[in-house]
Design goal:
- InterPro entries: ApbE, ApbE-like_sf.
- This is FAD:protein FMN transferase.
- There is one protein chain.
- The chain has a domain of 94 residues: Orthogonal Bundle (T-fold).
- Helices cover 31% and strands 27% of the residues.
- Strands 1-2-3-6-7-10-13-14-15 form a 9-stranded antiparallel beta sheet.
- The radius of gyration is 20 Å and the shape is globular.
Amino acid sequence: MSISSIIMKIANVSFAIFSLIGFSACTGNKSNDTGYLKISGERFHTYYHITYQGTEDFSNGIDSVFEVFNHSANPFDTTSLIAAINNNQGNRMDDILKTIITRSFDISKASGGAYDITCSPLINAWGFGYEHFNEVDARIIDSLKKFVGYEKITLANDTLIKQDERMKLDLSSISKGYCSDLIASFLKSRGVENFLVEIGGEIAYKGVNPNGEAWRVGINKPLFDTTGLIQDLEEIVVLKGNGGLATSGNYRNFKLIDGKRVGHTIDPESGYPIQTDVLSATVIAADCMTADGLATALMVVGSQKAEELMSKFSNTEYLLILGTKDENGFKTMASPGFRQKIISK
């Protein structure tokens, strides 16, 4: 089912949702001199910021999108469909869940399994998921790997079938991107032509900013920082038209284990956290969901296989910030199309 069809369903249940929850989680304010509205808030353990041109406050509609998405794909919500699948309490997928999982498997196949949403047991074991282990050793990792692998999942219409009931899915590497897409589609359905939707750094955009120019976003230097307060920019990118942008990196989601810094990117083959020569991967695509998943995949495959992977997806561009430096700072690797979007800081 298309995003527009999903949005129509959300619109139909919007009133019912707000009759039940009785409040909006969004906060908004109007920029009177530009004609743009700004809405921000917190969802899925992260922050979101939405800017769009118009006079109508869409806070309630946006909250409806969040609520419907939460019911489908939030593993931290024990009543969600993904939680039911992970806990073997159901195997039904709605249109949102089916879209996310199908696209995830596309990226898994293209990356030779380097990207795999069935890594949830490993992600949890290393303390980066919604469950936590007290300790990790080689024996535990080898045991968990036996029920990891996207090829062990079968999608049959609206049903997900697991070969092993211990399998669990982690959608965090792609779900925020799709939620950004859904909100973008909601705004389009309301006639909004110019907007930027950002959820936890994953961006869906269209048109121009309040200055009448193409949207501009900064790509941070990959400086290890768990606070998110360091905002040194590596590049500024111009986003023309309509699409999505996502960045992945270990520099803000890591742990110290035995005095060693360990990032959240897990290699499905080894079962261990991986740090390739890529410190940060940014992808621009036709939609944010694809950009989100591919950015994570690039962190696993590294720079040597980046071009091969990205060539399998049309209308995509990428920027890799590498772990080596020269006199000008971090070395980078980018597709020609991405280079054309970079402007001087």
